[in-house]
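Fold this complex.
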Amino acid sequence: MTLIDGQLEQADNATPASVDLAVSTVVFALRPHPITGEDTIWLPLVRRIREPFLGQWALPGGPLAPEDDLAASAAKSLNRTTGLKPRYLEQLYAFGNVNRSPDRVVSIVYWALVRASEDTRESIGENVEWFVADEIGQLAFDHNDIVNYALTRLRTKITWSPIAHGFLDPEFTLAQLRSVHESVLGRQLDPANFRRQLLSTGFIEPTGTSVQGASHRPPALYRFIPREKRNEP
Amino acid sequence: MTLIDGQLEQADNATPASVDLAVSTVVFALRPHPITGEDTIWLPLVRRIREPFLGQWALPGGPLAPEDDLAASAAKSLNRTTGLKPRYLEQLYAFGNVNRSPDRVVSIVYWALVRASEDTRESIGENVEWFVADEIGQLAFDHNDIVNYALTRLRTKITWSPIAHGFLDPEFTLAQLRSVHESVLGRQLDPANFRRQLLSTGFIEPTGTSVQGASHRPPALYRFIPREKRNEP
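Structure:
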């Protein structure tokens, strides 16, 4: 038996208890900017009430409980903080640089999108506040890096995936969908180009109905096509 | 202070030492299939020499050392096993289901692609073997799930990203690039369509030179355009 194998067979076996593990969540919602009134990306943060980083804002999260799967842990801490139970909750990345925390902590980060109709503030904790994602100050740990990573992922992914779904009600108009893309990307999109591009992706289909009680040309409603029914190239 | 906040502020702070952390790596290389002779996807596995799963094959990896960043840990265990130092090494996913191991272990998995010219077997451990990725038996832990996840990611990502780069020398012909795509996808691709699609992605550019010493129509050489020089939509 070689030293090589003596080290290797440790994989997935008892680890020295020297690295701690946390699960945190970045939750994005679209709400009007307090000054411009334009919809923009917000996220909830939690004020730390203990060292390190006492008094600074941080992402909602906590240590992984032995009885919880990773996504369950993310959903639990999110629900405790914000009262939200997002439909879209996905693993983002594991952040584990040696210097990201005074103790050695690896944080597995999930991200969630919530639609306007889910975005209540009922059971929000007293140390929780929502912020405009592009205007947060210095966060605890490496959480600014994490938020920036999540924003980049959101802005990239919305151009090639049906992720806008997470911000919309099940049925929506093309103008509402375009508005979500514009709010995420922070720029205007040409309506005709947007319509052509979105319809060519095969992500959405008309429901066959239109907005009720609208004017003489009520806009058509669309829905996202579930992955298993999509014709992907 | 509420119980809500009392729990929340634990994020990224001292975790109870009840969940262990490992880093494992899926390494893909293209080599001829032993029966068909067609290039196909291979990966190295390590035979376990201790319980649990004594004698079964598992991904290379090990516990995260406190002094190592995540990617450094993946690179180290990979180098110990296979002698490889892949240029492409990326975080794949964190696997943390409660029942994936007798102990509670979360495994952060990296994946790597190695090109034929890197793919030496010099310093391979005695309990390490390469397998055809689609023909592995029952692995330890949830490592079959991990390998399948990585294969799906590879086969999806190659259709919309310049990931084939990881399997190729810096300069290559379109036929070599198409061969990589065909080996990964396991099916033939139409040369004219492939050429048109690849050139439209903006990932590659002609080097201006051709294969030396070839016939009367030497094929042109291409290279991948670095991300920072690419014109992405």
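The longest strand of chain A covers residues 20-32.
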